[in-house]
Specification:
The protein is mostly helical and about 120 residues long. The chain is built from three helices and two strands; from the N terminus they run αααββ. Helix 1 runs antiparallel to helix 2. A two-stranded antiparallel sheet has the order 1-2. Helices cover about 50% and strands about 5% of the residues.
């Protein structure tokens, strides 16, 4: 669990305990502290982490690349669906393959990391 969630749960737990204990003992100070703990727990829970990226910013960053790749596929006349090739001996980092036609046979033994265009596939 992330630190924000742990802190939020801890604050909410302490707040709930103080709220119930204050209500049982009729102590207004403890009731107020309990509400404050619950409120702070909720506030901490709703904080966005440092890894959070707004959707609009992500779209503005990624969409031009997506459009460029679509134009490349269209201009090259590629008709097949893209395939992900997982890492293996010849390609330790894996790769993507977009066939020229829908009907193809792929020989993975002839592919390597330096191969950009592969013209001998079925």
């Amino acid at each position: 669990m992330r630190a924000e969630k742990i802190a939020s749960a801890l604050l909410a737990g302490i707040g709930a305990f103080l709220l119930i204990y204050g209500a049982i003992s009729s102590n207004q100070t403890q009731i107020n502290l309990g509400f404050a703990g619950l409120f702070l727990g909720f506030v901490v829970f709703t904080f966005k982490s440092k890894d959070y990226v707004k959707r609009e910013a992500l779209d503005n960053l990624i969409l031009p690349y997506i459009e460029t790749l679509r134009r490349m596929v269209r201009d090259l006349g590629l008709e097949g669906n893209a395939l992900y090739i997982p890492p293996y001996e010849n390609m330790p980092e894996g790769g993507n393959f977009i066939p020229l036609h829908e009907d193809f046979d792929l020989d993975l033994g002839r592919m390597d990391e330096e191969t950009v265009f592969f013209d001998q596939c079925g």
